[in-house]
Amino acid sequence: MRPTIGLPLIVGAALALGGCVAAIASSAVGMAVRGAKGEPQGNQHLQAGAAKACTAHASQFGTVHIIDVEQNSASKIIVWGTVGEGAARRSFECAFGTNITGFKLRAIAPSG
Question: Alpha-carbon distance 70 to 44, whole Å?
Fold first, then answer.
């Protein structure tokens, strides 16, 4: 008579490895889908245009001073600056993709 201890061990190992194989297959499918979509198109080449468009939009609130232009993601540029002078000065944040997608104007708290 032969011991059958090996059979449950083989079945258990097969079940455990089956989960690994499924995970590997799922990962491969995900990579294939991302590869088919291609890399997202960046808009870094639009930073100067973003600063110009945001300056034009902000100018309706006063004299514009750009503080920073940052590439926030592959397709989103953020332009920060201030508008106005003296006590009437405010800060702004302008979001830009291929055009202005958001604009926030905030009061600047007096120092002191």
Answer: 9
Contact 64, 55 (CB under 8 A): yes
Cβ burial, residue 61 (10 Å; 0-12/13-18/19+): middle
What pLDDT digit, counting tens, does each position of 89-100 carry?
999 999 999 999
CATH for the 44-107 domain, from 3.10.450, 2.70.50, 1.10.3470, 1.10.4160: 3.10.450
Q: State the pTM of this model.
A: 0.62
Q: What is the pLDDT of residues 4-40, one digit of tens each?
A: 566 566 666 655 555 555 666 566 666 665 565 555 5
